[in-house]
Write a structure and sequence with these properties.
Blueprint (H helix, E strand, L loop, with lengths): L2 H4 L8 E5 L3 H13 L3 E5 L2 H8 L6 E7 L8 H11 L4 E6 L2 H10 L6 E2 L4 H19 L1
Length: 139
């Protein structure tokens, strides 16, 4: 079974916002998520991500963000803003330092956070879990 086969279902059309300043990391996971059937928007930092999230015509469902990004808004700040202003959007924070991962897990309502380097399939599994939980909450 391919990753795309495993992702089949209601979550296939979900829009995922991928935020990472490391362009190669961002491109690889974005392409993998597209291969799995998700629609993906890419942002290089928190400020770009906020611009996307502030657009009411873009129905982002999940943000996958690096904890450490350049600029005024890092992954933690993006997660906090999202929780306050877009509570309908789930956030997955990805970090390489244990302390950052622990803090990220505290910020995300449904932990745990993922650590870099991460396996693309783990990201897809986490997205599917969040979308399934969202579906149950809406019923």
């Amino acid at each position: 079974m391919t990753p795309a086969d495993e992702s089949a279902g209601a979550d296939r059309a979900a829009i995922i916002l991928v935020v990472d300043d490391e362009v190669l990391v961002r491109m690889v996971i974005a392409e993998y998520l597209r291969h799995c059937g998700y629609r993906v928007i890419e942002a290089a930092n928190g400020e770009e991500a906020l611009l996307v999230l502030q657009q009411s015509d873009i129905a982002v469902e999940i943000v996958l963000s690096a904890v450490q990004t350049p600029g005024a808004t890092n992954g933690f700040g993006l997660s906090q803003w999202t929780r306050q202003h877009r509570p309908d959007v789930d956030v997955i924070l990805v970090g390489s330092a244990q302390q950052a991962a622990n803090t990220a897990a505290d910020l995300c309502e449904i932990g745990p956070a993922l650590k870099k380097p991460y396996e693309a399939q783990l990201v897809v599994d986490r997205i599917r879990q969040l979308l399934a939980e969202r579906s149950r909450r809406q019923k």
